[in-house]
Structures are given as C-alpha cells and as structure tokens.
Amino acid sequence: QTVVTQEPSFSVSPGETVTLTCGLSSGSVSTSHYPSWHQQTPGQAPRTLIYNTRTHSSGVPDRLSGSILGNKAALTITGAQADDESHYYCVLYMGSGLWVFGAGTKLTVL
Amino acid sequence: QITLKESGRTLVKPTQTLTLTCSVSGFSLNTSGAGVGWVRQPPGKALEWLGVIYWDDHQRNRPSLGTRLTITRDTSKNEVVLRMTNMDVVDTGTYYCVRIRDLLHFDNWGQGTAVTVSS
C-alpha cells in the first residue's frame, strides 16, 4: 500500500524560511502526481494553498511556493509569520481517480 | 463565489447507513472536468480521501471502502450525496466535500460536518 510521507513536525522562527516535503514510501514524487498542499488550523476546514505542484490557489501569497525537490514535492514558506502556524497536508494523485493524503506536518512558528 | 456546504444526520448507530449531502454553488456539476470529492478526518488524525464523482457520473472510491461507499449527484439541485453503509465507530469524524477542478486538482472545501457513530 502506498504511503505518502511528511515530516510530523517542524519549527521555524518568524521571518525565516521553511520547506516542508511530501514523499512516497516507494518511488519518487513527480509532477504526474499533481501534488497539492492544504493548510488546516485547529477546528477549521482545510484550505487549498497550492495545486498542480506549483499553482497558487486564489488569495494565497507568493511567499508560499510549491516545487519538486529531488524525489519529493515541497512547500516552501518564505518569511514565516505567526499565522502560518498550522497543519499542512499534501495529497498526491495516484492515477485512476485515486488520491492519497499524507499524515500532515504540524508547523510551529516561534 | 464558490461554496460547498455539507449537511445530514450527525449521529448514527453502528451498522446504520450514513447519508450526507454536499450543496454546491458558484460552479456547475456538469462542467467538463468538474468533480466533487469527499474527505474525512477522524478526531485528532489526518485527512483521508474517500471518493469522488465527476461531471460524467464516473465515480471512484477509496479501495478499502469497497462497496460501502456510494456517491451520487443531483444536478437539478446542485447536490452531491454520500452514502456509506454499515457504519462503525471507526468511521467517526468530520466529513468534508471538496471541489475538484480539471479532473485532478482539489480546490474549494466545505466547512465540514462532524459525524459520530455510537450506539
């Protein structure tokens, strides 16, 4: 069974840059997995940040960016702010109308 | 403005069937490439993709759910309906519907509805 891997947690200081990654238990992530990233704060619905590897969803600032780094998808947050403190989930398209979410990364800004 | 809103009974007993409705506005369920997916989140846990229905009525489900899950749509009402049979306590969680654009991309999310499975 395919597992999508994410760092369980990450800490960043305000103003610094952090890169969260999204990998596969077996194989490499590519643009053909159409990776997307979703932010969720406690008690709230998820919000789409990035889709199709690097396309910004409406209203998402440019200081967030998506890419493929090596064999993983990546979400880079430049100039971290307090309200970036959230859970971040990636989801990969596995073909034939099937998607798999990662377990999420809890980002702390301190 | 695109919106999605889930509704339905929030407390079901084990073995019962869960029925949730996703009411959408701001986009057409008939647009080529459009879809509505369902995602759930057990308390304190990660998001889980459940299934999707597309503009052409094609449906795909999470394999582990087998035939328990059925997703249908009513374009006249702009609604997508999730039915999950034989509910168990492990199915407890918040259920979200999400707009899929261009076949492949998650976009707008509903606010979610919390479902509890308990006798």
How do you describe this structure in short?
Chain A has 110 residues and is mostly beta strands. Chain A contains no helices and eleven strands.
Task: Tell me what the structure shows.
The complex is a heterodimer of chains A (110) and B (119). With 110 residues, chain A is an all-beta fold. In chain A, 0% of the residues lie in helices and 52% in strands. Chain A is built from no helices and eleven strands. Chain A has strands at residues 4-6, 9-12, 18-24, 36-40, 47-51, 55-56, 64-69, 72-77, 86-95, 98-101, 105-109. In chain A, strands 2, 4, 5, 6, 9, 10 and 11 form a seven-stranded mixed beta sheet that branches. In chain A, strands 1-3-8-7 form a four-stranded antiparallel beta sheet, with no helix packed on it. In chain A, a hairpin with a 2-residue loop joins strand 7 (64-69) and strand 8. Chain A is globular, with a radius of gyration of 13 Å. The mean pLDDT of chain A is 96. Chain B has 119 residues and is mainly β. In chain B, strand 7 and strand 8 (79-84) form a beta hairpin. Chain B is globular. The model of chain B has no long low-confidence stretch (mean pLDDT 96). Classes of the chains: A mainly beta (110), B mainly beta (119). The A-B interface holds A 34, 36, 38, 40, 45-48, 51-52, 55, 57, 89, 91, 93, 96-104 and B 37, 39, 46-49, 52, 54, 58, 60, 62-63, 96, 98, 104-112.
